[in-house]
Amino acid sequence: MPVLTEKTTIMDADGIRRALTRISHEIVEKNKGVDDVVLVGIRTRGVPIANRLAGMIAKIEGKRPPVGVLDITLYRDDLSQLSYQPVVHSTELPVDITGKHVVLVDDVLYTGRTIRAALDALIDIGRPHTIQLAVLIDRGHRELPIRADYVGKNVPTSSHELVSVKLGTVDTEEKVVIREFVDK
Question: What is the domain partition of the chain in residue ranges?
Fold first, then answer.
């Protein structure tokens, strides 16, 4: 019977911090400041990453961009495969996103389906001037024509491997690992 085990650690806490620091500088540079920038984290781990980016941007610019929380549960194209009764959380946006530069934040970019669902949800809420994508890990294997504007680390993986981001605010440790199923 296959068991899911950790294969290798690809980022430790310092690596995560450095990647997010770089992304925060890139967001400020690309948007020429943060006056019209709104960070929107996708539940679950995109939210603490968005909050960390906002804190880092505040240190750079002296101004913290607003951070929103996006729940994409009802927008997923695999909803019927997830559960008979999916748990829906609230979407919380502190400002109107119409006309803003929205930076959508997630932990891992894989097939692109989560991001497609997030784009649908955002467009239902308002009409941003631009939507940009920031991810901690891009692992490839896209099924949709979606790419990130800001990437912490590109990690080539097998489609049989899993990439797990563990954050101290959500999990008990802080690291990014590749996991795989092994026969026991």
Answer: 13-160
